[in-house]
Amino acid sequence: MSFDDSFFDEPVQTAPPPPVPRRRGSTKVMYFLLTVLAVCVALLGGLAISLQGRIDDLDEKLEVQTLSSATEIVETTTEEEQKPSSAPSSGERGLYDEPDDLEAFIDEVSRSIVTVFCADSNGTGFASDLTGMDEGYKTFIVTNHHVIEDCIDDPASLSVTHGGADEVETKAEIFGWDEENDLALIEVAVELPVLTTATEFAERGQWTMAIGNPGPNDVVLHNATTFGHIIAIEDNYFNYTSALVNPGNSGGPLVNSRGEVIGVNSFGFVDQEIGLWNIAVDTDVLCEVVVDCG
Description:
By secondary structure, the chain is an alpha+beta fold. The chain has helices spanning 5-9, 24-82, 90-93, 102-110, 145-148, 284-289, and strands at 113-118, 121-128, 139-143, 158-162, 168-170, 172-178, 183-188, 207-212, 224-234, 238-241, 253-255, 261-271, 275-281. The longest helix has 59 residues, at 24-82. It is rod-shaped, with a radius of gyration of 47 Å. The termini are far apart. The relative contact order is 0.13.
């Protein structure tokens, strides 16, 4: 057999490659996974919406509860303010402690303290917020009866000085007295800073300060202070205090930690069993016996 040249010039046709077989199982798996993913996304979205709704509801409930609680607090506070309470307030509890700024406290109270001179003796007095003095006088001075006793029949021998060591003398006159409770009122012609009278009776354990001008005429200790506590109360008017009261302190005020007068220092005595007692008479007695306090 012979072959001519044309036989070699014709291209040789090769067979096409066999088709790649498809993996039908893999496609089904992919569709399944996509379906599961879509379901998960939908569930998560729904859960997120549900949670957001619950959070919004919770916030709304909390806001309502907060407003309700605040309203209850305001209403309760208002009711408590309107009703007198037998329980001590924060201010009353503070009466058991000394003032925060004791130096400023003493300076403030000292402005109302005076020295009362009668004949050859002297004592202490203080400007009071009592009103109703005679014409020409501007301030009531509270003191003890035994301080001015010798001047009742000799009023010209009565004099009052104020201003501490500066000792500015002022016109004074006896207004009235209560010998039984050892209290007296003097009128002075100048206006002095007054001490406020406490509106409530003192209680055992409360902090106290006694202030006065003890010492003889020529050696007066101006605005000397002693500190203590109420140790007993008798008949509401007689306050027993551990604050020392010296001769010359008689007639001075016993004040609480607010600077309010809770008594007039009157006398002290020593008991062998109990010790030193100092007694301050409540100024309410003045309103019942000496002057009409309105």
